[in-house]
Amino acid sequence: MKKILILFSHPALEKSRINKKLVNRINKVEGITFHDLYENYPKFDINIEREKELLLAHDIVIFQHPFFWYSCPPLLKQWIDLVLEHGWAYGSKGTALTGKWGLNVITTGGGEQAYAKEGMNGHTIWEFLAPFRQTFSLCKMIPLPPFVVHGTHKLEGEEIDKYAESYVYIVESLRDEKFDLATLQNARYLNDLSVKKVEG
Question: How far is residue 104's CA from residue 65's CA, in Å, rounded to a whole number?
């Protein structure tokens, strides 16, 4: 069984229908450490040693956040800048995170068709997430495809519930090692691995 750390970053969770639902559901999953960065560090005064201890205690690290301007909210960026130190997380002597898995769980206002070569944004989600993927790789972690909720402005109750159910299924499956690494890495989105489960 793998231990999972969810680093959640949303500066206005009270206004988010989607992330609020995802958080409420994922908080009920056993064996998951849910860590709300804005709740813990409202003044951006990150406790670096505490964060390192959390990372060392877990096998999988999830960055859950809205996809703000093709990136993440500022507190998560500051967390990356401060916590993933040279000589600890990366560099010739930085081996603390070696072999851990890393991924993003993101919500986007744009629909799935907007994130394609021929779409409005001209790039895929996977391409936009390259900085995160490279961050994981630089830290000798194993990057996984993201879990993505598209078109958040148009989603309604039942659709939101399905995404929440899918998210829980994926996290539980990662925890319980239901998928081998090759299956995970070959997925476009991790959502795709839960389609049969959710529809069934």
Answer: 8
